[in-house]
Amino acid sequence: MSTPFHALGNHHTIAEINLTTFRKNIKAIKHVLKQGTLIMAVIKTDAYGHGIIPIAQEAVRAGANRIGVTTVEEGVKLRKNGLLLPIHILSSIIPDQASDVVNYNLIAQVSTEDVAKALSTEAERVGKEATVHLKIDTGLHRFGMNPNETLPFCKKYYSLSGLCWEGIYTHFSSADEGEWNTTEQQYRLFMNTVAQLEEAGYTFPIKHVGASTIAIEREDMHLDMVRPGIALFGYHPSLRQEKQIMLEPVMSLKSKLIHLKTLAPNTKVGYGGKYSTTKTEQIGIISIGHGDGYKRGLSNIGKVIVNGKEANIIGTISLDQTLINVTEIPNLTIGDEVILIGKQGEKRISARDIANWLDSNVDEVLASIMVRVLRVYIT
Ligand SMILES: *Cc1c(COP(=O)(O)O)cnc(C)c1O
């Protein structure tokens, strides 16, 4: 679906977020899930740059069962905006955050004694129950408890008052890369740990291990819930998955031509003169720069679309402007729409293209787009 240029209005640059596409992506993911699997929509990092509140609301409408974020602040913001679904904090909290977690009814992960005790104390104090998930480190070595420590830990802390052990989970290190030997080994470690705990009487009703890749590719590891993030926004973690599920990018990034000029041959352009014209060339200036999160690394490398044609970025990207070569694109006018991510005519640029130019990934490209870039929601 394309929006007319006036969506940009007076704004120099917008990120257009298509909520219908977002809903379709969730539906497509639900379609590949094992019957009865819960879906936690992971919308951390301001919904990977798409805007956490509108995306959370749309996730609810699309039938997500739960929401996952990284920080307590994000969880509190969702609650203050009326979100009622269970909200998971996927990063470790520190004991000081226990009161927000309990009072805003957030679900924390527990992988240390300190956090278990702080949540228990706070829950007791306010007469509530803190719902928690035990996090196990099976090889990512970021958060989580060493599997060997889980049984002694449960012996000491499972029955702490005020805690409700609703779930247990892990996060794989190398699923996106398709390293299935490693991933299956991590999965077995998780399952063996859970079995050992359950044998000893420590139960965890909701077991979950999988992000987008597992949701798409490994039904055998769906367990009780999956936690897709980037796939909701239309990007497969790996291109090999494109055959398995149809996903469409949710965000388009659009800017405007704000200046046009003709330069003589052998003219150096931009800071440091990093580009030099080879003939008489026409240069366009667009109103986006690395201050908008359009990375400086795209200097002399990236491409944009204007008038249905590709134009090369030339010279060094500055904080607020980017120069493009429009010599081969006739009939341009100041104010013309320029597509940085999205489609125009037959041409298309995706966040994956930008990630490739930058030797980065899609998550970084999307989440880097600054808040000053207005998010415009269309349905
Ligand atoms: C970010 C994250 C996810 C979502 O990952 P995607 O690869 O974007 O689907 C799931 N679980 C945890 C614990 C995460 O940190």
Fold and architecture overview:
The chain has 379 residues and is α/β, with parallel strands linked by helices. The chain folds into two domains: 33-241, TIM Barrel (Alpha-Beta Barrel); 251-378, Lyase, Ornithine Decarboxylase, Chain A, domain 1 (Beta Barrel). Helices cover 29% and strands 26% of the residues. It contains eleven helices and 19 strands. The chain has helices at 19-32, 44-48, 52-61, 72-80, 98-103, 113-126, 147-157, 180-199, 212-217, 351-358, 362-367, and strands at residues 13-18, 38-42, 66-69, 87-92, 106-110, 130-135, 163-169, 206-210, 225-226, 251-263, 268-269, 275-276, 281-286, 303-306, 309-314, 322-325, 337-344, 347-349, 374-378. The strands form three sheets. An eight-stranded parallel beta barrel has the order 2-3-4-5-6-7-8-9, surrounded by four helices. Strands 10-13-16-15-14-17 form a six-stranded antiparallel beta barrel. The chain has a two-stranded antiparallel sheet with strand order 11-12. Strand 14 and strand 15 (309-314) form a beta hairpin. The longest helix is centred in the middle third of the chain and has 20 residues, at 180-199. The model is unreliable at 1-5 (pLDDT under 50). Bound molecules: pyridoxal-5'-phosphate. Pyridoxal-5'-phosphate binds at residues 42, 44, 90, 171, 211-212, 227-231, 237. Pyridoxal-5'-phosphate binds next to loops.
